[in-house]
């Protein structure tokens, strides 16, 4: 996926300004930066949830807006910050939605097997007949990820997946993100505010400031006290183990 000179303007203000970068396959890429830096807007444009005002997103050699929705949803899945489920659904019914691009709502035995495997992968077997609104926040997040796994896309976009989770469930969520990449071979793109999670679980970091990319590179290249201090305008200290950031604080 190639992002080329993306621009987005709201009420006369440019919130995404000539943003260009390439997303490496089979890696975890975190978008970081202060509030209002343009991270979630870029994520929205990449996933076609937000219309761009300029630039291009090239996906598998074709402008992403040219893809038919059903075909794109076999290749790219997104979970936004707000995933409020209004219907009374069990975990299995929710995960079943992940197969819609393939089955159109008429699941085959193969689809049911994929659904069961996704539930098992997220260790939700004992909850699969429970209603979503009866689960804890961490369990609901796992159910949403199970739906994404059932969708079986190469690219997974997650907008602040640790939002509103306590440290236990947030850490487990990031471990799941890493497994999606390492075990299932998926390319995972996240928007994250918690830079310690970004440093520990990512392969690449894309740092935004004022709607522009300030730095893009590996964790070792971007997660330095000099770069982070420049981005967030505070003095950072970093503890490293084997050259990899372990704890970032200020």
Explained architecture:
The protein has helices at 39-46, 69-72, 91-96, 100-103, 109-121, 137-151, 167-182, 195-201, 219-222, 225-232, and strands at 2-10, 13-22, 28-32, 54-59, 62-63, 76-79, 155-159, 187-191, 204-209, 212-218, 237-241, 244-249. The chain is of the alpha/beta class and 250 residues long. The strands form 3 sheets. The protein has a 6-stranded mixed beta sheet, sandwiched between helices. A 4-stranded antiparallel beta sheet has the order 2-1-4-5, with helices on one face. A two-stranded antiparallel ribbon has the order 11-12. Helix 5 (109-121) packs across helix 6 and helix 6 (137-151) packs parallel to helix 7 (167-182). The longest helix has 16 residues, at 167-182. It is globular and about 55 Å long. The two termini are 34 Å apart. The mean pLDDT is 91.
